[in-house]
Amino acid sequence: MIKLTYCLHRLPSLTREEFQRYWRETHAPLVAAASEALGIKRYVQCHTVESAIGDGTADGRNMPHGEGEDYDGVAELWFDSEDAVAAMTATQEGLRHAHILLEDERNFIDFTRSRAFIGSENVVIG
Q: Which superkingdom is the protein from (predicted)?
């Protein structure tokens, strides 16, 4: 399995709550509908929460707070292989769904501040 991880920043016009509600209630169903055509095996959204524990963890590691550091969420998409990721748009149906998802992402994601990467998991516990 291979995973596409997408660290997300919201558009400046949205509050974190608006961003997360849209992502959960509007975008997630579109990803679910596209999963077969795009070869997505698993999709998880991790929504950032305001937390004193989180702040304490960052402080204890001398991590900076502020612009560019605090993502609004992380999306994780699992695929069978890198070839499966590359093949997402190899069919008309895949292209159609990829276009739908990209157009919808423009409604809530700040692409200039968000980052995506491909990785493989090294499970240590679980």
A: Bacteria
Q: How many domains does the chain have?
A: 1
Residue pLDDT, tens place only, 24-33: 999 999 999 9
- Residue 125 maps to a domain: no
- For 61-109, the pLDDT digits (tens) are 555 555 445 889 999 999 999 999 888 889 999 999 999 999 999 999 9
Residue 52 is assigned to a structural domain of this protein: yes
Specify if 126 maps to a domain.
Answer: no
Q: What pLDDT is attached to residue 67?
A: 47
**Degrees (nearest 5) of the Cα angle 10, 44, 120?**
105
Please say whether the beta carbons of 89 and 12 come within 8 A.
no
Give this prediction's pTM.
Answer: 0.84
